Amino acid sequence: MLKYIQNSFLLLSLILVASCAEDPTPKPNAYLRLSYPEANYSNVNLDVPFTFQKNKFATQVGVKKMAGADNYGVNITYSNLKGTIFLTYKNINKDSKNLMEFMRDAQNFTQKHTIKADEIIEQVYINEDRKVYGMFYEVGGNAASQSQFYVTDSVKHFLTGSLYFYAKPNYDSILPAAKYLEKDIKQIMESVTWK
Fold first, then answer.
1. What is the pLDDT of residue 95?
2. CA neighbor of 192 nearest in space, from 147, 148, 161, 146
3. What are phi and psi of 109, to 5 degrees?
4. Whole-angstrom distance, CA of residue 121 vs CA of residue 41
5. In this structure, what DSSP letter does residue 85 have?
6. Which tens digits make up the pLDDT trace of 39-84?
7. CA distances from 154 to 69, 95, 185 (A)
8. Residues 170-187: tens digit of each pLDDT
């Protein structure tokens, strides 16, 4: 038994001597560093009633005719980010009765994300020269869509857009990509021209 105690004491002494060789140094927190190319925008002129600018980093732009007169869906795909900006264009009736319905639907669509969202920040957009008026929504938290918007000329044209990633919403993980594409969405809003 005495031999066992001596061996244990010797082992413990060696561990203490070896561990006291250097002062411990705390390591800094590690953060994921993602870098994306600088945005380079070009005009997109599709067979739809509006034009806009898109980032050349987008890998594909698709157009789909939807039900109703002059209603279209435009998908701007970013394969490298596993995300898509979905645009939906709707024609406003001549009497403008459906404008309020379109605006209410766009606002309600954003508000549905409050279940998972930590916050929703609204930013009004007005461009009198091009007759473009709208709202941008930045959705914080684990919501399905981190950015949404709508723009209109209040007479004939109504365009909504939303950003979705092909991944389970984890705000911390997709935040860098969401912030990068938020700039692209704002560029779409700011460059929309009605035909």
1. 64
2. 161
3. -60, -40
4. 25
5. E
6. 999 999 999 999 999 999 999 999 999 987 789 999 999 999 999 9
7. 17, 11, 20
8. 777 888 899 999 999 999
Residues composing the chain: 195
Residues 6+ apart with CB under 8 A from 117: 139, 140, 141, 142, 143
- Kindly report the backbone phi and psi dihedral angles of residue 37, in degrees, each rounded to the nearest multiple of 5, phi listed first: -65, 155
Q: In this structure, are residues 192 and 159 in contact, taking their beta carbons and an 8 Å threshold?
A: yes
Can you say how many angstroms the Cα of residue 107 is from the centroid of all Cα atoms in its chain? 17
Tokens of 46: 């599709």
State the Cα torsion 119-136-41-165 to the nearest 10°. 40
Alpha-carbon gap, residue 72 to 66, rounded angstroms: 5
Give dist(CA 135, CA 15) in Å, integer.
64
Among 96, 83, 101, which Cα is nearest to 157's?
96
Question: What residues contact 110, with CB distance under 8 A and at least 6 apart?
Answer: 120, 137, 139, 148
The domain ranges of the chain are 46-194
Cα distance between residue 184 and residue 195, in whole Å: 21
